[in-house]
């Protein structure tokens, strides 16, 4: 496929902007300086890949090799239809991430297909996106490093005992009784003996053993009902509010955010998704550990496997109530209440419509009274507006029919 000059120009422009952002430059491109009539959509279409990477970190995942995703996505898009189903079985995860990327980045699908035979250019695009992902992940990690200490106790009036040094992770993880209890698999007793056994390697902790912070603080392990309370832990919910509405919102009322827009609004997130909840879990776990560097695997605990395990929990829809819970906590959306619809959409007559009809009736009546009686008959056949049972006219008569002016 020959690369379209317009698409190539779009790709290189986004890469140029990405380089400027990564280098800390605030200099505008020529397009930005000259296009005074740019619409929001056109501006979004030319946002730097780096910026899109920052958005994708919280919506899609922080463990993806973006270049591999691009290659897999282009292969999936250009393969024969009868072969695509078999391909998806082997690269289903990559296709899932590819679709998420294409939703975040306008025109990304056609851009990557167009430059499919220019792997160097594709690598540059992938590197820019990945830089944005790493940047926002590091920002969230840094922000939680100290703030999370005030989220750990269910009762926030209680202080941590012993005290944890702000900005220092060496006394977290399996060393501190509070962080150790939250990291400990629910199936293990949260005791000092357990924590020491884990530290000494006598007990292993893997991504398939769900940590206590995923559950409510008073949850008791029941091997026959693992799902009860899963992902409802108070630390998880507070971290979700911290990341998507701002640190000041973490311990505040439902849907609270102070001053400027929160990250959710900035990236256009209106409801939580399996990926955003998995991202919250990963950030929470890292903040609780004594690890000082981000890694795919922490001893025996595979962070990437943990992330995707949480995403996959929502596959069959039986955990949709968890999404409702987070929407309720983060955005203040009432649980079980559908999105608001207008009166017209509901097939009902609003008070505004009633008022118009009543005022029209009143005007018609006054006109009729002021004109000669010979003309009064002209209103005998005035059209009417049928309203719901129990409607009243402007004099309080419950006729259910309101006359309007002819």
From TrEMBL:
> Could you tell me where the Polar residues compositional bias lies?
370-384
Family annotation (InterPro entries) = DUF6698
Q: Which residue ranges does the record annotate as region Disordered? A: 23-44, 358-406
Q: Superkingdom of the source?
A: Eukaryota
Q: What is this protein called?
A: Uncharacterized protein
Organism whose genome encodes this protein: Hypsizygus marmoreus
């Amino acid at each position: 496929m020959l690369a379209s000059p317009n698409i190539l120009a779009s790709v290189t422009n986004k890469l140029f902007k990405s380089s400027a952002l990564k280098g800390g430059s605030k200099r505008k491109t020529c397009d930005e300086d000259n296009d005074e009539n740019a619409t929001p959509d056109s501006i979004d279409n030319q946002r730097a890949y780096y910026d899109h990477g920052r958005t994708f970190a919280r919506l899609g995942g922080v463990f993806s090799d973006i270049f591999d995703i691009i290659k897999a996505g282009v292969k999936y898009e250009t393969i024969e239809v009868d072969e695509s189903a078999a391909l998806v079985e082997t690269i289903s995860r990559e296709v899932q991430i590819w679709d998420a990327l294409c939703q975040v980045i306008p025109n990304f699908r056609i851009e990557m297909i167009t430059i499919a035979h220019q792997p160097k250019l594709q690598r540059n695009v992938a590197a820019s996106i990945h830089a944005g992902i790493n940047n926002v992940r590091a920002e969230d990690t840094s922000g939680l490093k100290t703030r999370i200490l005030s989220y750990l106790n269910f009762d926030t009036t209680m202080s941590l005992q012993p005290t944890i040094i702000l900005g220092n992770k060496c006394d977290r993880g399996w060393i501190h009784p509070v962080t150790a209890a939250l990291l400990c698999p629910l199936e293990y007793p949260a005791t000092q003996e357990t924590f020491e056994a884990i530290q000494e390697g006598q007990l292993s902790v893997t991504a398939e053993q769900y940590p206590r912070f995923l559950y409510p603080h008073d949850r008791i392990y029941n091997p026959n009902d693992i799902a009860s309370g899963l992902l409802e832990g108070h630390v998880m919910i507070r971290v979700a509010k911290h990341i998507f509405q701002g640190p000041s919102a973490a311990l505040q009322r439902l849907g609270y955010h102070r001053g400027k827009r929160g990250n959710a609004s900035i990236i256009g997130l209106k409801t939580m998704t399996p990926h955003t909840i998995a991202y919250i879990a990963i950030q929470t776990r890292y903040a609780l550990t004594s690890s000082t560097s981000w890694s795919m695997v922490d001893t025996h605990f595979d962070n990437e496997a943990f992330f995707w395990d949480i995403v996959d929990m929502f596959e069959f829809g039986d955990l949709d109530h968890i999404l409702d819970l987070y929407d309720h906590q983060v955005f203040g959306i009432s649980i079980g209440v559908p999105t608001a619809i207008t009166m017209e959409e509901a097939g009902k007559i609003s008070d505004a419509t009633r008022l118009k009809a009543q005022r029209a009736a009143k005007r018609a009546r006054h006109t009729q009274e002021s004109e000669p009686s010979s003309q009064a008959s002209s209103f005998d056949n005035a059209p009417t507006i049928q309203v719901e049972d129990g409607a009243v006219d402007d004099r309080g008569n419950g006729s259910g029919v309101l006359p309007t002016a002819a």
